[in-house]
Write a structure and sequence with these properties.
15% of the residues lie in helices and 43% in strands. The protein contains 3 helices and 18 strands. The strands form 3 sheets. Strands 8-9-10-11-18-15-14-13 form an 8-stranded antiparallel sheet, with no helix packed on it. Strand 8 (134-140) and strand 9 (144-156) form a beta hairpin. The protein is globular.
Length: 291
C-alpha cells in the first residue's frame, strides 16, 4: 500500500511540474513565414501584430513597409487571423472581438518601415522599396523573436541598393528594434547631396495628429483606426459602427537630424554611409487594447 501511494504521489508531482513548466513557457512573442498568404512575414508580441510583404506580391506593387494589425488582448492572434481569413472566410479587416487589420500600407513605409531620402539642391525625395526576396529566423523563444529580411532591389535615385533588415520583437516592449544595412555593387554615386535613412510612418489622417521630438529623434502619430474606407464599411456592415478607436504609432531613430513630414510620411532620419548599421525603433498600440 505504501509503495502504491509513493508511486501515485510521485506521478502527481510530475504532472504538477509539467503543468507549471507549460505555463512558464507560454509564448508572448511569435512570428513566422506565411506562404499561404503570398509570402507574408508576420510577427507579434502582446501589444500589436505586424507583417511585411514577400515576393509573391510583386505583381501588386507592394512596399518594404510595415503593416499593422491591432490587438485587443495580449494573447497571440497571427495564426488565428490568417486561419479565420483564408479557411473560414471571415475577413481580418473586421473586428470580431480580438482585433483587426485596418491599416492600409500600399506602396508606403507603413507603420515604421524604412525610409530613404536623397537631398538634391535643397529638396528631399523619398524612396520606398518593394517586397523582400529572402527571410531567415535568427532567434525564436517565448520572450524574443528575431528575424532578417533581405531585399535585392531597393531603388534609390535611379540606382539599385541591397537592403538587409533585422527586426527584434520582445515580450513587454511595445517597440520593435530594426537594424538596417544598405550596400551597393561599388557603383553608387550621389553627386548632389547626401543619403538620409531612418524609420517613417505613413499618415492616412491630417497632420494635426502628429508630434515631433527633435532632441530624441522621435516622431509620434495617431489616427482613426478605420481611416481606410473599405475597412470602415466592412465593420459598419458587420456591427453598425464606423469607429474602432484610435491607433498610436511611434518611430525613434537615435541621432536623427531630420524629423519632419516628407511626401505624406512622418520621418525620423539621419545621414547614412553605405555599409553602416542603422538602428531605429518602431511600435504601435490601440486605444481598445486591454491587459
Amino acid at each position: 500500500m505504501k509503495k502504491i501511494f509513493i508511486i501515485h504521489y510521485s506521478l502527481f508531482i510530475l504532472l504538477c511540474l509539467t503543468a507549471c513548466q507549460k505555463e512558464a513557457v507560454q509564448p508572448k512573442v511569435y512570428g513566422r513565414y506565411v506562404p499561404e498568404r503570398k509570402d507574408d512575414f508576420a510577427w507579434e508580441n502582446e501589444y500589436a501584430a505586424y507583417r511585411m510583404y514577400g515576393p509573391a506580391l510583386k505583381g501588386e506593387n507592394p512596399s518594404n513597409g510595415v503593416d499593422l494589425w491591432l490587438k485587443a488582448r495580449p494573447e497571440l492572434v497571427v495564426d488565428s487571423f490568417y486561419y479565420r481569413e483564408h479557411v473560414l472566410g471571415l475577413p481580418y479587416h473586421i473586428n470580431y472581438g480580438k482585433g483587426l487589420d485596418c491599416y492600409k500600407v500600399g506602396h508606403t513605409c507603413g507603420c515604421g518601415g524604412l525610409v530613404v531620402l536623397t537631398e538634391e539642391e535643397g529638396a528631399y525625395k523619398t524612396w520606398i522599396g518593394g517586397p523582400y526576396d529572402r527571410w531567415e529566423i535568427l532567434e525564436q523563444t517565448a520572450e524574443r523573436f528575431v528575424f532578417k529580411l533581405e531585399y535585392d532591389s531597393l531603388l534609390v535615385a535611379g540606382q539599385i541598393l541591397h537592403e538587409s533588415i533585422i527586426i527584434t520583437a520582445e515580450a513587454g516592449n511595445a517597440m520593435n528594434k530594426a537594424e538596417v544595412v544598405l550596400t551597393d555593387n561599388g557603383k553608387w554615386k550621389m553627386e548632389n547631396g547626401k543619403l538620409l535613412v531612418g524609420g517613417g510612418i505613413y499618415m492616412h489622417d491630417t497632420i494635426d495628429h502628429c508630434e515631433v521630438y527633435e532632441k530624441i529623434g522621435t516622431v509620434f502619430y495617431e489616427e482613426e483606426a478605420l481611416s481606410d474606407k473599405t475597412a470602415a464599411q466592412m465593420n459598419f456592415d458587420h456591427n453598425g459602427s464606423m469607429s474602432q478607436g484610435r491607433i498610436y504609432i511611434t518611430v525613434q531613430t537615435p541621432g536623427a537630424t531630420l524629423t519632419d513630414i516628407q511626401d505624406g510620411n512622418l520621418v525620423a532620419v539621419k545621414p547614412y554611409e553605405l555599409g553602416d548599421t542603422l538602428t531605429y525603433y518602431f511600435g504601435a498600440t490601440w486605444s481598445e487594447w486591454k491587459e
